[in-house]
């Protein structure tokens, strides 16, 4: 059996009488790129929010790297090695790129309010230098050295997306959750982001779970794809298998019977 870093078992989520997810189960193999796709309103972001701890499902279990994290808060999941980016940018617009990324190191720092006042006489100074060294490596990896001291809110959308990815990488995650990392980007920016995601997966060994609408990107970089529709899992499999599945075609094209499906093919 493959080594699964993430296991989601029968997760259901509802808001009042509206069901966002219904008994969704899947497993993500360690070291893979796993994409979640589906029409708008299919429950993709709700699923990511359950995995990251922003939402608490009413039913089901979530296991991450051998730990039952179903009831853990997002910060506790981050300490276990789970990083996250958001569909809507969540950067501190008034802070520099470097400071935004350093925020991602916060839970790794041993310095606290007791040792802080003794900064120059404690290991805190050396600790901060080590963290800054690793952050500079991430900045270099994502080619944002030229904006490292720029205020995040002044950057282009594509660069801000890259900074948010850098902050998630600064957590030193085993698993990173990407919510539409290429939304709003032009073709060149999408190609760059796809390359960075592949590199962080292959060079850093980070497992990736990604929501993405660009089917070209999904097909090119995913090891496995799961399709959600109306909060239910339609299929999980290899990209080429998923893209040729009739149920998937119906979900995306809105076709109701096989004759319509053949006409659209």
From TrEMBL:
Transmembrane segments: none annotated. Keywords: ATP-binding, Nucleotide-binding, Transport. One of its GO terms (cellular component) is plasma membrane. PROSITE patterns: ABC_TRANSPORTER_2 (PS50893). InterPro entries: AAA+_ATPase, ABC_AA/LPS_Transport, ABC_transporter-like_ATP-bd, P-loop_NTPase. One of its GO terms (molecular function) is ATP hydrolysis activity. Gene3D superfamilies: P-loop containing nucleotide triphosphate hydrolases (3.40.50.300). The keyword Heme does not apply. It comes from the Bacteria. Residues 6-255 form the ABC transporter domain. This is ABC transporter ATP-binding protein. It comes from Ferrimonas lipolytica.
